[in-house]
Amino acid sequence: MTNHPLDLAGIGIGPFNLSLAAHLDAVEGVEALFFERRNAFDWHPGMMLPDVTLQTSFLKDLVSATHPSSPWSFLSFLVAKKRFYDFMNADFAAIPRREFAQYLSWAAQGLPTLRFGAGIDEVDFDGRNFILRSGKREQRARNIALGVGLKPALPAFANRLREDDHFHSSQARFRLGACAGKRVAVIGGGQSGAEILLHLLNQTDNAPSHVAWISQRPNFLPLDETPFTNELFTPPYVASFRDLPEPRRHATVEREKLAGDGVSSETLTAIYRRLYVLRHLEPSGPEVELLPHRDVVNAEPREGGYQLIMRNGMDGMMGIGHAEIVILATGYRYELPDCLAPLTGRIVIDRTGRPVPDADFAVAWDGPSANRIFALNAGLISHGIAEPQLSLMAWRGAVIANALLGRRQFDVEVPNSMVNWRSQMHTDARLDTARSNGRLFSP
User: Which is the most buried residue in 13, 322, 340, 372, by most CB within 10 A?
Assistant: First the structure.
């Protein structure tokens, strides 16, 4: 920590603050430090199951979209690790998630502004600077960037589950070994639930005796990766989305859910093929139940397990399931970090509990406009479904860097979109007359 105010202090070092640090590394004269409680960078270690892949192109890395000459790109990582040609020849349809995690760790080890093992306990404001406290040490900063990530979203019945026989998907890699020979319920029909199910089905010596895959969705639905859906993950779409009224933004996010939260078609195909093998070629494997369109409304503890009460959305009937281990692949939620408690009453919060970021990701608060709180991964309602994804990570980092510098250091100009998302306003009187007469599209 320094004795003078930083231009920026980053709280938390995940991929998003890592991208911001990588951009600022290219700018001379900026004093920024990023603080993380963990002793080293470790990206979603609990979901790093064998053979899982990235649902995003490797070109959507920390910097390539906005600073392609940066030494912190994924291609630079491949060259530095002497694997560029091997990677090209492997011709991955989707790259291994472990490799992207290695890339992020490589960047974290090389960037000089990162401070691991230095958790921030409290953030306050003295009228001129933010005061960050870590143990007995203090650091002043004119601006802060929140990159602390999301927390597990748990259903209401989770507080009835015992600690030793349930876990969230974020802990899967460390807890799945306990499923051997047990009746297991995987609750959640997204990518995490699918990956956990596939892992359990592929076990031989440590296979569960029974697996139920339960999802609220009407079927086990695929991620929409078609070109026009991928337009939702571009700066032009974000610009159009931001101009919508808040109620319409909420509805749009819900409608577009499967664009960012479906199951990859490769994973669904692998599950179906494994089910085929278990049914026709290896009948000694675990019993499997696929239960879409089920809402688990309660989990009642029983000796040796749980009775799951489910409502079937297709026929309206109630059903009962039994499990010895419950795995909650129920996603994540945003929550302001505890260290911001002294400032909580000063930050504007929307109805979902999120702060309200402006176009440059600085949130609304009652402090001086010169002192900004940048929030990364808080703008699902303000910026759309791309916000929690890796897709616009580099663009967001560049936008924040430009806002911090007060100049266009990185090119983040919004290009013309392939799609006209918003209505065009016309002043031609003839068009107005045609609209009023209902003949705008008449032959």
Answer: 13
